[in-house]
């Protein structure tokens, strides 16, 4: 038998590869197949490539890496597969194999290293926010669009309006429950979320407290490892997962609450990430079992706080890491429906990714731009007063392509406005 092209550390499991019956039901929901109509850029084609590599019939370099790199990791194929193929586990086993075994070009490696040297670090992001503000005040965007290479152009185009007060603000470490306490929860404040979307975190604390949760938000929390997990940087993911578990398990809470879809999905995967480490496997599984997206937690609690009406047509965008990866679709809609007067709109092609997908819109700017424009067209077609979505990456990506046509919010900000929780 030919030797596998994967190394021996957690290769894609043979039994998961064999689950695919090549029916093609996943093809219409795969964004890259929709864009290019190329079999090897579909879930079925990528599983076939993994199968060939596992049999040692192809190597990992060249076409294999190219087609796996082009995958958004959006997991729309997991939702649409009638055979229950766990493409998420296959991709998360394959990407670290590429990172370990396939040398990248110098410029690609440097760009990826720069992303990982900046985004998971809140202090560095705050320094970047200062430069970002100066850059926006000096109106250098047009010049940048002319002189920068595509990946850097994409990065600067996603920079949100920088507000330094927000970037340097800190959250209260403990917010008491309003009325009788129903849960004691700890909140992940995130990296990009903490610096560029402080208002979302602040709204989340107020809403949780108004609904009877005591909210603990540890100051010294770091990156949860989501970027590394989804990009195949296993060492980064493992190190940050262990630190996050250590930070939160000291707090003895009922739940760990997240308002970033990408972080929530990776924190729910800690159990699988650390299952081969006897010192961590049980701790990681216990931690993952406590993790809830904020809309999931709010849907578990009978609404208690009074809501005032918001008479608006609101389109809800399912972040892929919430809808496809965590299967959390009904809960955000149920939570939004507790607001009187609000009309919830569904989007055409709701299952198709907006092109954000972690760091995808930075490293694959062209397909990300096509998907961003397609999402913006679909949103405009339902004529909403505003759009809500539960992931900062989606807010930045969709905001870029809507270009001011429709205001965007996180669902918890809308709920906060309806509850008018005390500030
Ligand atoms: S991944 Fe699922 S839907 Fe896609 S071809 Fe395989 S079995 Fe069919
Ligand atoms: S994760 Fe998304 S882009 Fe990748 S194969 Fe599945 S549907 Fe296609």
UniProtKB/TrEMBL annotation:
Pfam families per UniProt: CCG, Fer4_8
Entry's Gene Ontology molecular function annotations: 4 iron, 4 sulfur cluster binding; glycolate dehydrogenase activity; metal ion binding
Cofactor: [4Fe-4S] cluster
EC id: 1.1.99.14
UniProt entry keywords in alphabetical sequence: 4Fe-4S, Electron transport, Iron, Iron-sulfur, Metal-binding, Repeat, Transport
InterPro entries given in the database record: 4Fe4S_Fe-S-bd, 4Fe4S_Fe_S_CS, Cys_rich_dom, Glc_ox_4Fe-4S, Helical_ferredxn
Reactions the enzyme catalyzes: glycolate + A = glyoxylate + AH2; (R)-lactate + A = pyruvate + AH2
Domain (4Fe-4S ferredoxin-type): residue spans on this chain: 11-41, 62-85
Annotated cofactor note: Binds 2 [4Fe-4S] clusters.
Keyword match Cytoplasm: no
Free-text function comment from the UniProt entry: Component of a complex that catalyzes the oxidation of glycolate to glyoxylate.
Name of the featured protein: Glycolate oxidase iron-sulfur subunit
UniProt source species: Saccharomonospora marina XMU15
């Amino acid at each position: 038998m030919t030797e596998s092209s994967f190394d021996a550390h957690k290769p894609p499991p043979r039994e998961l590869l064999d689950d695919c019956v090549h029916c093609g039901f996943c093809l219409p929901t795969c964004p890259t197949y929709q864009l290019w109509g190329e079999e090897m850029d579909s879930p079925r084609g990528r599983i076939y490539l993994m199968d060939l590599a596992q049999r040692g019939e192809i190597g990992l370099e060249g076409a294999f890496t190219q087609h796996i790199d082009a995958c958004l990791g959006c997991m729309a194929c997991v939702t649409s597969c009638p055979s229950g193929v766990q493409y998420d586990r296959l991709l998360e086993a394959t990407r670290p194999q590429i990172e370990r075994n396939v040398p990248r070009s110098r410029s690609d490696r440097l760009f990826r290293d720069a992303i990982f040297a900046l985004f998971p670090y809140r202090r560095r992001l705050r320094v970047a926010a200062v430069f970002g503000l100066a850059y926006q005040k000096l109106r250098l965007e047009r010049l940048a669009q002319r002189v920068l290479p595509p990946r850097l152009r994409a990065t600067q185009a996603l920079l949100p309006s920088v507000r330094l007060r927000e970037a340097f603000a800190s959250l209260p470490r403990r917010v008491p429950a309003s009325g009788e306490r129903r849960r004691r929860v700890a909140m992940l404040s995130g990296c990009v979320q903490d610096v560029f979307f402080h208002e979302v975190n602040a709204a989340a604390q107020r809403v949780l407290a108004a609904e009877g949760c005591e909210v603990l938000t540890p100051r010294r929390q770091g990156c949860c490892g989501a970027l590394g997990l989804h990009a195949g940087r296993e060492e980064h993911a493992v190190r940050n997962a262990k630190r996050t578990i250590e930070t939160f398990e000291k707090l003895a809470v009922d739940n760990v609450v997240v308002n970033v879809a990408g972080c929530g999905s990776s924190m729910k995967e800690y159990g699988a990430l650390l299952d081969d480490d006897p010192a961590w496997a049980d701790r990681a599984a216990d931690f993952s079992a406590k993790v809830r997206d904020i809309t999931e937690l709010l849907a578990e609690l009978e609404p208690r706080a009074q809501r005032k009406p918001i008479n608006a047509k609101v389109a809800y965008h399912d972040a892929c890491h919430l809808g496809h990866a965590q299967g959390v679709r009904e809960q955000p809609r149920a939570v939004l429906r507790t607001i009187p007067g609000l009309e919830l709109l569904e989007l055409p092609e709701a299952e198709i990714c907006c092109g954000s997908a972690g760091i995808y819109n930075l490293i694959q700017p062209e397909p990300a731009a096509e998907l961003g424009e397609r999402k913006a067209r679909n949103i405009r077609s339902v004529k909403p007063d505003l759009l809500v979505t539960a992931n900062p990456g989606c807010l930045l990506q969709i905001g870029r392509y809507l270009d001011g046509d429709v205001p965007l919010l996180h669902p918890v900000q809308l709920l906060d406005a309806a509850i008018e929780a005390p500030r």
